[in-house]
Amino acid sequence: MATQKQKWEEQQQSQMMLRVNNNEDEMSNSALSAFRAKEEEIERKKMEVRDKVQAHLGRVEEETKRLAEIREDIEALIDPMRKEVAIVRKKVDVVNRDLKQLGLNCQKKEKEYKDAIEAFNDKNKEKAQLITKLMELVSESERLRMKKLEELSKNIDSLS
Asked: What Pfam families does UniProt report for this protein, alphabetically (predicted)?
């Protein structure tokens, strides 16, 4: 009996071991299924993120192109302005040089004009003095001639 009991206990242990093994297999399969499910979910999310990143990269590339076009447009607007400004500045510099030269010429001409006016006024004064002197001389000459004529007239009257 002891052997039968031992056999029966061994069978029970075997069955229990099989059940444990089956449970372990089921748990392993369950864990493996859960692991695979998680892996698939991770892969799916990874693909979603990759798609989102690609979409963002596409938009970023489009925006980069738009910004480059805008920058070119701005530079195109700035360049003609810079050229025009440079041309106008050069013209202003040329006009400034001309004005400086003309200013110097004006100052020189003004000095010449003042000198000419002064010389003109001096000559007018001299002329006025000479005319005054001439008038005095003419008056004196007429007076002397009249005196002479009167003397001659007296002499003639005394002869007659």
From this structure: Transcrip_act
CA distance 100 to 96: 6
Nearest to 60 by CA among 49, 47, 68: 68
* Highest mean pLDDT pick, 16-20, 67-71, 122-126: 122-126
Quickly state the pLDDT bin for 21 (edges 50, 70, 90): low
Residue whose C-alpha is closest to residue 25's, from 140, 125, 116, 17: 17
d(CA 144, CA 148): 6
Measure the CA–CA gap between 144 and 141, rounded to whole angstroms: 5
The residue assigned the tokens 């001389």 is 137
Question: What does the pLDDT look like over 63-81, one tens digit per residue?
Answer: 999 999 988 887 777 666 7
CA-angle at 42, arms to 38 and 47, nearest 5° = 150
What tokens does 10 get? 């061994």
Is the whole-model pTM more than 0.70?
no
Residue at 142: amino acid letter: E
Q: CA-CA distance, 21 to 5, in Å (whole number)? A: 23
Amino acid residing at 72: E
